[in-house]
């Protein structure tokens, strides 16, 4: 029985020694992440669609930091290219995006859907719901417009439709230097609301 305790003590001591070595190595050999990669990754749309040729936005951000083209992000469009160019301090290249760069979402024609689930497997953001041999539908709020679900559909029932501007999706470009005079109607006090 005492041999058993000696073995347990020896294993515990070895675990502590190896744990200390690993802890020291993790501190001493730590590789700091490139902050430019984090900034580029924050600009990318995080659709993880793979249209850029990389498995996700983070690997593409790393590739951009290493000198790859900044025009490969289709869901981000020209706006993303401009932001990345400003961040890197380079000229904005001419991107070959579609002429109509307005946001789009996928739409499934219910009469043609056969429930094959190929679109569900292709969607990188889980914006399609449905089960095998059952009708599928798109959740527009989750759809990034990457178009990866269109090609696998055997019945061509998925189309991309333009997102119409609403009060919620409108790009309200308000001048930050705007000064708005406000009058409190109950007591007659006047004040100015300044943008910045």
TrEMBL record:
Transmembrane feature ranges: 6-27
Binding residues annotated for [4Fe-4S] cluster 2, in chain numbering: 113, 116, 119, 153
Residues where [4Fe-4S] cluster 3 binds: 123, 143, 146, 149
Subcellular location: Cell inner membrane
Named cofactor requirement(s): [4Fe-4S] cluster
Major site of localization recorded for this protein: membrane
NCBIfam families: PRK05113.1, rnfB
Protein name per UniProt: Ion-translocating oxidoreductase complex subunit B
Species whose genome carries this gene: Pasteurella bettyae CCUG 2042
């Amino acid at each position: 029985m005492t041999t058993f305790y000696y073995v347990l003590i020896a294993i515990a001591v070895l675990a502590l020694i190896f744990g200390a070595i690993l802890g020291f190595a993790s501190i001493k050999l730590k590789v700091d992440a490139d902050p430019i990669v984090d900034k580029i990754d924050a600009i990318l749309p995080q659709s993880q669609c793979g249209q850029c040729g990389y498995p996700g936005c983070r690997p593409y951000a790393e590739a951009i930091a290493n000198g790859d083209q900044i025009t490969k992000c289709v869901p981000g469009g020209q706006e993303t290219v401009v932001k990345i160019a400003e961040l890197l301090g380079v000229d904005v290249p001419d991107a070959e995006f579609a002429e109509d760069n307005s946001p789009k979402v996928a739409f499934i024609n219910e009469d043609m859907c056969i429930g094959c689930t190929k679109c569900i497997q292709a969607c990188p953001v889980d914006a399609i719901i449905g089960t095998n041999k059952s009708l599928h539908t798109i959740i527009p709020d989750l759809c990034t417009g990457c178009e990866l679900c269109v090609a696998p559909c055997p019945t061509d029932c998925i189309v991309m439709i333009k997102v119409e501007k609403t009060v919620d999706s409108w790009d309200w470009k308000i001048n930050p230097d705007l000064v708005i005079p406000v009058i409190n109607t109950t007591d007659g006090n006047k004040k100015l609301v300044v943008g910045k």
